[in-house]
Amino acid sequence: MIGVNKWFGDFHVLKDIELTVRAGERVVICGPSGSGKSTVVRCINRLEAHETGLIRVDGIELTDDARSVAAIRSEVGMVFQQFNLFPHLTVLENLMLGPMKARGLSRADAEARARRYLDRVRIPEQADKRPGRLSGGQQQRVAIARSLCMEPKVMLFDEPTSALDPEMISEVLDVMVELAEDGMTMVVVTHEMGFARKVADKMVFMDAGEIVETGPPETFFANPSSERCRTFLGQILHH
Amino acid sequence: MGRMRTPVALLLPFLLLAGCASSSTWGWYVVNPMTPAGWTNLKFLMNGMGATILISLIAAAISIGLGLVVALPGLSHRRWLRILNRIYVEFVRSIPLLPMLFWVFYGLPLVFRAMGLNIPIDPFWGAIITLAISDSAFTAEIYRAGIQSIAKGQTEAAQTIGLNYVQTMRHVILPQAIRRILPPLANQFIYIVKMSAFASVIGMQELTRRANELVVTEYRPLEIYSFLILEYLVLVLVISAGVRWLERRMGADERG
Asked: How far apart are CA B130 and CA B109, in angstroms?
């Protein structure tokens, strides 16, 4: 992302965002609410359109052209705060829909792939239930598996644990840690600093639509250079 | 047996009225199935049932398809498409059914002829076209409300797994919306069945027309129109029961 700007009406949500994520890199974005961190992630796969600047994913520039949007979305998986599973389909059908309709896989291939990723998020036994019957943590793991079924090169996580009860957060984070260990490129918006310490290659702190500070987690946590970042970390680490 | 209680209770007023058959006001003999003349009259009246059902079914089917076609532009982010939707809905919704029926039946063939086309419009298709178009403005609004009620996150999730617009609608949004709009759609179907009575004025041999014709020969309007109302009541009750059965099935599907 080079010099990306975005406005919601008169409100300048993103100000000259510069962010590079290399293949295999894990980037964690944090910051106070309303700082624009979710918007950054949503711009990467065009759920929001940026107004100026350049966004390039795997060599493809993101423009208004529907083909570039489709090409980038096929490389980028996304996990939402509210899971956004399809309530009228079973877990298995949720996972098979994308591979069958967007990738043209046969039913049998799509089902085999879906079961493989359900195993990976450790809920194979829930395959035939509807999402409404699952706990929040299970639903979010299904959502992660649904994204993985598209075999993306990059996974975006938009506050994946913020809607979960505390006891379910770790089961989702465990899956994400494993994903990171397998070498997935990840951009994660989260307040889970324990997770960030464990997996992040790069920390990004945003406030008021700007990237205030970027750095490797060791220096980021031990010795943040900006006052705003220090205050924020103080608030979320010792409450 | 419990499920039968409501229809029977609804029929009660008519049974009570029928009980007055002995008084001079009522002459139920016109539709008494025990007498040959009554039985002939009864068959004559009920023979309109097929046409009423067929007109209503075809008109409803067209309206359900057309309503979706009209609704989708109304949900577009393109302004001119939304304006197109508004014009159609506001215009069609404002035309009373009877004038529209006259326009379609007597006027539309002239429009066709001016265009060099020879398309005759018989009462059957005249009624269907009118009912379908008139109703489509309402079904379009029902669809719009139903689709808008599905959370935005559903569309976003569908987009992130690579589905295009048509796939998103077909596999994610409409299956969820349809469950919510089934009750208002059923309402519209009942409305169509009742409005199909207007087809009698352009000579369509449906329930109301048959009743009108029999009244002219028998001069027993009270009995014959009472029986006519009973016929519509039965039709609508059957539809209601069918819709409730559908809703239960779909509801079970959602929870399962």
From this structure: 13
Q: Which helix (H) or strand (E) holds A27?
A: strand A26-30
Would you say the pTM of this structure is higher than 0.80? yes
Cβ contact A101–B179 (<8 Å): no
Residue A97 contacts B where some CB pair is shorter than 8 Å: yes
Q: How far apart are CA B45 and CA B43, in angstroms?
A: 5
The order of strands in the sheet holding A185-189 is A76-79, A154-158, A185-189, A26-30, A202-207, A210-215
What tens digit of pLDDT does each residue of A110-152 get? 999 999 999 999 999 999 999 999 999 999 999 999 999 999 9
Q: Which chain B residue is nearest to residue A155, measuring alpha carbons? A: B160
| Residues in chain B closer than 8 A to A45 (CB atoms) | 159-160
- The per-residue pLDDT for range A144-191, each reduced to its tens digit, is 999 999 999 999 999 999 999 989 999 999 999 999 999 999 999 998
Alpha carbon B162 to its chain centroid, in Å, reads 38
Sort out which chain A residues have CB atoms less than 8 A from B158's CB and list them: 86
CA end-to-end span of chain A: 34
CB A53 within 8 A of CB A1: yes
- To the nearest whole Å, the CA of B155 is away from the closest chain A CA by 9
d(CA B7, CA B30): 25
Token look-up 């669809």 returns B143
Mean pLDDT computed over every residue of chain B: 89
Residue type, A160: P
Q: Answer yes or no: are the C-beta atoms of B195 and B127 closer than 8 Å.
A: no
Token pair, residue A84, equals 């956004």
| Per-window interface: B 112-171 vs A, CB < 8 A | 151, 153-154, 156-164, 167, 171
Helix (H) / strand (E) element for A207: namely strand A202-207
Chain B contacts of A130, Cβ < 8 Å? Answer: 254-256
C-alpha to C-alpha distance for A80 and A161, rounded to whole angstroms: 9
For the stretch B89-124, what's the b/e string if a residue is b when 16 or more beta carbons lie within 10 angstroms of its beta carbon?
beebeeeebeebbeebbeeebeeeeeeeeeeebebb
Nearest to B163 among A82, A98, A132 (CB): A98
Q: How far apart are CA B253 and CA A180, in angstroms?
A: 37
As for the ipTM of the complex, it is: 0.90
What is the Cα–Cα distance from A62 to A102, expressed in whole angstroms?
A: 19
